[in-house]
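Entry 14. Structure prediction run on the chain below.
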Amino acid sequence: MSNLDRQPDASVCGGRGFVVAEPVRELLSPRHVKLGESTEVRRLLPNLGRRMVGAWAFVDHYGPDDIADEPGMQVPPHPHTGLQTVSWLHDGEVLHRDSTGSLATIRPRELGLMTSGRAISHSEESPKQHARYLHGAQLWVALPGEHRGVEPHFQHHTDLPRVTAPGLSATVILGSLEGAESPGTAYTPIVGADLALAAGTESRLPLDPDFEYAVLSMSGEAHVDGVPVLPGSMLYLGCGRTELPLRAASDAGLMLLGGEPFEEEIVMWWNFIGRSHEEVAQAREEWMNSDRFGEVKGYDGDRLPAPELPPVALKPRGRVR
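Output returned:
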């Protein structure tokens, strides 16, 4: 799960100063970015107007893409620090390899959760024999300061808890929802859930008023708190909500993302999350010239070189531009 921009922007975010303390309906449009050789993603976070939702700091939506006659996702080994990656699929498979020796094929509605801690590297690719369609989301969670140095590790959970209501099935990806708790390790109060709504469903999902939330549309026609949210777009909802009205005009797939507003101000550049320019620059240098990030064994190809740092120092500021 990588930011493959060769001229990536520095994203400065975090802190409570820009959290919207009341319910809002802020529709975020995506930026289209190439991921590897043949996959284009719609990037929702970081966004020009909104940088984080709780500890969620990076959200890409891709597909559904017809890759029957294509290699599909091909992301060479690349590094991460200071974050967790969440791989979530609706269609297709992704083969994950990392420098801890993990090897796993992630399939639809399975959680691939990689904690970079102090340093990790990994690759992602569609298997040589793969399904026709590829459709999913790739997300990052910022690690709080006291956990940024944990040992890197990978978790693959194939059986996740669900919350159901008439016409609604919610799979709990990370954190907890209505008493159902994901087996994935979380380091901040957080929730991520996949919502499947049947056509004609009208439902109200209980929420924590202390969390801020957003909803990503994966497929279908749905209204979130009265706002139509098209696939590949995301509605930021702010804080202070005890429930969320949902209505599906067709079968629809959504992702609910939320959590306590992230206290710390962070710097996010390329595939690193740090707290200062110097920390990010050191991570880049060590990816290029040391063995800090280990080796991804079994990937057929070279690892990804880091782009050049911008000519000005990266500084943590707030959650929005």
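The mean pLDDT is 92.
Filed with the rest of this week's runs.
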